[in-house]
Amino acid sequence: MKNCIAAILCLLVVASASAREKKRDLGRLSGSIETSWGVYVDDPALSTPLTQRYGTNTYVNLGYTIKGFRAGLQYDIYEPQMLGYDSELKGNGLKGFYAGWADSKWDVTLGTFYGQFGSGMLFRAFEQRDMGINTSVLGASVRWNPLPWLTATVMGGLPRRYMEMFNPSAVYGADFELSLLEPFVPDTDAVLMLGGSWLLRDDRTQGRVDTAPRTVNSFSGRLAFSKGCFSFDGEYVHKGRSYGLDPRLEQFAFVRPGQALLLNMDIALPVFSASIVWRSIENMSMWQDDSHTTSVNLNYLPSLTKQHKYALFQLYPHEVHDFGGETGGSIDMAGSIPVGGNPRRPLRYSVNASVFWDMEYGPDGYRFMGTGGGLLWAEAYLELEKKWGPDWKTVVAAGWQRKPEVSRLGYGEMMMNTVSAAADVLWQISSRYSLRMEVQHAWSDFVDDQGWMMGMIEFGIAPGFMFYVSDMLNYRTNALSNTHYYDAGVSYAWKFLRASVSYGRHRAGETCSGGICRYVPEYTGVNARLSIIL
């Protein structure tokens, strides 16, 4: 593996030199390497036994473009995977390769490609490295844009499943998008878009569940309107009869169709903005195949709750019930109020509320858009930000969450309430130095843990260095002892280079990004990351 990385780094140097070639149009050779390492040590303060000493997730990309032509490669290395990533992410190999051509009307890709139909509830092939997700498709994708107001896409191939070169289960699809106003009222600032998609999954894997249909046909329709400060869009998805699992049911395996409805509305004014989203999903796990107990989805169903920046506000995140069904939504509002006499330094606020219910199950199956299955999640959040001058800024935040949670100490499941608060102060000492201090607290009636506190200090040295130290303490708990989860690190950024290293003790729990979560066990050790983009 060391020889492989050395060879790749040499190619990146060649890529940089080629990119500087100015005399002739030889195209552009580009490249990147992103590598993360974890080194784990024994810690008697933790109850979880250490299962590995180190791990690495490394991704290397090479690309070449000239005029309308493009080509690229991606090499993935998990030797072994870092803690918290799926155990099927292991080994190394060339997992991405493509060639494509595009002009004003056509875009053709052969090899591995990513793509999305509509909101992604029907189909999305994407990569999210911090979650260990890569669902690229090996095949062909063709996008045709014959008119400024019409776009059509067809694609087909084999989706990637972890480190398998590609799943024998095939996927085929088509999508179109039509601007209804542009052909008739070209000068209007209003936009009315109509779209539709079709997807066929053909499961050719050996060992497929006997009762599971080999092919699943699904489709969706969507409509979007925007004018000035207002926009609205909606999408409906129907999934054909497919195999599904619900561990809460006596007959937990079933074969039936699924469906989903998503509605969004946004208002954006100079001093106020609001966004409302509502979604109902029923049996919408769009599995690549029905042969594995840990299948990978062909679609994208993220949590629609707020993505928090403070650690104690995300101790117990909401996880989407795509195996059965859920209904709910969220509202976000943000704006500014002139406070303090200086209109250039108003009080900025953001408010969020969200609620999701389990979809009830009856003799005829799940009740679509139903809310009678019990509360899954409720949250309210307020954040206030104020600049007091060129050198000082403060942020205060408070939130409440309610959700069912299973005790890790064996007390069963209970409905828990958590109230969290945070205060954040930034002092711009000079044009080069900055200091940020943050304190957080969380109170809970959960039987396992009732009290958390956290503090962090960050010191920045422009243009590239950032140092930090933090400590999170579970000070009221029914566990055997209170535990400090300390962490300290430094990061550096310069042009094409990003690097960071830290050492600390990390609690067990869900880590989330973009509405998707993965479980990470508790551990103590070093984390290092290096990213080079040329």
UniProtKB/TrEMBL annotation:
Domain of life: Bacteria
Source organism: Candidatus Cryptobacteroides faecigallinarum
InterPro entries for this protein: DUF6029
Protein name: Uncharacterized protein
Signal sequence coordinates: 1-19
Keywords linked to the UniProt accession: Signal
